[in-house]
Design brief:
This protein has 588 residues and is of the alpha/beta class. 43% of the residues lie in helices and 13% in strands. It has a six-stranded parallel β-sheet with strand order 2-1-3-4-6-5, with helices on both faces. It has a six-stranded parallel β-sheet with strand order 13-12-14-15-17-16, with helices on both faces. It starts with a helix and ends with a helix.
Length: 588
């Protein structure tokens, strides 16, 4: 192998990406560009050898969210590779969500070498700073160009990434300056590959391992001394922010916790809680809305961030007793109401310490406390009222979707909820069969940006997948369909076509006239969805009767590709029936 810049650019890029596969990376999303050519060509060679899955996306913003979906569903680190300049700025929305939801992505951005910085060189910007505010680490290869890095330099970068991911999962930015020439001849590539395969491809590397058993946890006497397991309390499980690989241990610890306390449990739709957990309370948000005074206890154990519920937030804000917040290895503050003692080492470590403090390691189960029985009975009463109203007519409305769709979409297939109205409706109007199934959503920054791209990323790992989304969230990220083979993925899109942001009708309708509301908030768009779907070659079906949804799902699953099921929502009917059912529940 020659020592030319051309060969070194390719070889070091190849070495870098290969080392990432050694720490568990399986998927890379590649965006177009010239400055990133050595990285792209290296990725292509690893893809040919089935070492790394490579998918392309012409839109860097979509690429970031697609990678986020892959990381979320798989529990593995994923990579995004972009060229220089404004391409890097387009990664910020996905990096923000990855930061807040604690999902690990490495954004690898090609850059100009140091000699071209701050001198007016074309397409040269301060991109190394673009993601600083949200990334766990901001790393760089040699500023003069990756060709000046050696074996140890590349290894140290990947070791640093691995260490950061173990300490605090989240996004990492790796900026890679590259000097010209960026291309490589067939002959030099062949020689480089021969060296790589002989000396590097199968080489074993020792990286840090995640060993929670040996984690040095500072014992917090204040937290455990304030708990009184003899008194009643509630367990509230918010959005799960740990790795999908740790869900079994998370649920095992939660089962132990419920068993030794006997406390009732409120769960979020994306809590990750298993359906066999004792003490689950149906329709708990509506219970809080109806009569929060029914909850008589002086301690609450919260797991993860707070759910998207104003009623829950107000309840916790006014709660005068003890609140303990258990986080999954997240050192940042997660309590917006600032009333909890926060424990950052995860529910498994919390329960192990709890057992040691109170029970000397012996598990002593308790029956469900009286408060749990009262809440479960109240939830069942609300459930009966909901079911009566939902099937009183065949109109398709958003609150009905939240209750009915999880009952007819196969229970072993996951669901993703757009971060606007759907996630809130699921929380309010669904039942335990929904809240404890495998469900995904943006629960970090809670934006609608990247909805389709993230769903397609999830569908690469776990499918068939159902995406429930409003029209604005889908059209905003319609470039997701341009991700490589997106149309071939087994994704059913249930499109709630309410002609704009329907959530704003619920929030601001009483104090704005119709035209103001539309212009300032709802922003309705006239979209011919049938023509749009045809342009992307996505099959589409319209459904106007709620009883026809099951048949539509059977059709979508038989197609085994990305499809759209469109339901048109009459906003006036939606608000009228929603208000009626809420009044009926609150009066009973």
């Amino acid at each position: 192998m020659t020592s030319s810049i051309e060969c070194q650019n390719f070889f070091r890029s190849l070495q870098l990406l290969n080392l990432f596969t050694k720490i568990g990376v399986k998927n890379l999303i590649l965006c177009p560009g010239s400055r990133s050519a050595p990285l792209a060509i290296a990725a292509g060679e690893l893809n040919k050898r089935r070492i790394l899955n490579v998918f392309n996306s012409i839109d860097e913003r979509s690429a970031g969210f697609h990678s986020l979906g892959i990381s979320t569903a798989s529990g593995d680190v994923s990579l995004v590779v972009t060229t220089s300049g404004t391409a890097v700025g387009n990664l910020l929305p996905a990096a923000i969500e990855a930061d807040k939801s604690c999902k690990s992505i490495v954004f690898i951005t090609a850059d100009r070498p140091l000699r071209l910085k701050n001198c007016g060189s074309n397409q040269t910007v301060n991109q190394e700073e673009f993601l600083n505010s949200v990334c766990r680490s901001n790393l760089s290869t040699n500023l003069n160009g990756i060709h000046e890095n050696n074996d140890d330099d590349i290894l140290k970068i990947v070791e640093s990434v691995k260490k950061q991911i173990l300490q605090s999962p989240g996004p990492i930015h790796l900026n890679v300056p590259l000097e010209k020439p960026l291309d490589i001849s067939f002959n030099n590539k062949k020689k480089s590959m021969e060296v790589f395969e002989r000396f590097y491809l199968k080489k074993n590397y020792q990286f840090l391992k995640n060993d929670n058993k040996n984690k040095n946890i500072e014992f917090s006497e204040k937290i455990f001394k304030t708990l009184n397991l003899s008194n009643p309390g509630i367990i509230i499980v918010g959005p799960y922010q740990g790795s999908t690989r740790d869900l079994d241990s998370f649920n095992g610890a939660l089962n132990k916790l419920q068993a030794i306390t006997g406390w009732p449990v409120f769960v979020d739709p994306v809590s990750g809680v298993a359906d066999d957990l004792r003490g689950l309370v149906d329709n708990w948000e509506l219970i809080l809305k109806k009569n929060k005074n029914i909850i008589q206890c002086d301690q609450i154990l919260r797991l993860g961030p707070i759910s998207a519920s104003n009623d829950l937030e107000n309840f916790l804000l006014n709660f005068e007793g003890l609140q303990i917040l258990v986080k999954e290895n997240n050192a940042r503050k997660l309590d917006p109401i600032k009333k909890s003692l926060e424990y950052e080492f995860g529910i498994s470590n919390f329960v192990n310490q709890l057992l040691g403090v109170f029970l000397n390691g012996k598990k002593k189960s308790k029956p469900l406390i009286n408060l749990g029985e009262v809440l479960i009975k109240e939830g069942a009463k609300i459930k009966e009222t909901l079911n009566e109203q939902i099937f009183s007519n065949t109109k398709i409305l958003e609150y009905k979707i939240a209750n009915y769709v999880p009952k007819i979409w196969p229970e072993n297939y996951p669901i993703m909820l757009s971060a606007s109205s759907p996630i809130r409706d699921w929380l309010t109007f669904s039942e335990n069969g929904t809240l404890t199934r495998k469900c995904f959503s943006f629960r970090g920054a809670s934006g609608i940006d990247g909805t389709l791209s993230l769903a397609l990323g999830i569908a690469r790992i776990t499918k068939p997948l159902l995406l429930v989304t409003g029209d604005l969230a889908l059209i905003y990220d319609i470039n997701g369909f341009l991700i490589e083979n997106a149309i071939e993925l087994n994704l059913t899109i249930l499109l709630l076509n309410n002609n704009g942001g329907n959530i704003f009708n619920n929030l601001y309708k009483n104090n704005l006239d119709e035209e103001e509301l539309k212009k300032l908030f709802v922003m309705p768009k006239s979209i011919n969805w049938e023509n749009l779907a045809m342009g992307y070659k996505v099959p589409i079906k319209n459904v106007s009767d709620i009883n026809k949804l099951r048949e539509a799902f059977e059709w979508s699953l038989s197609v085994q590709k990305s499809v759209i099921i469109k339901v048109d929502i009459n906003v006036e009917h939606e608000m009228k029936e929603r208000n009626f059912i809420l009044k009926k529940i609150l009066k009973n």
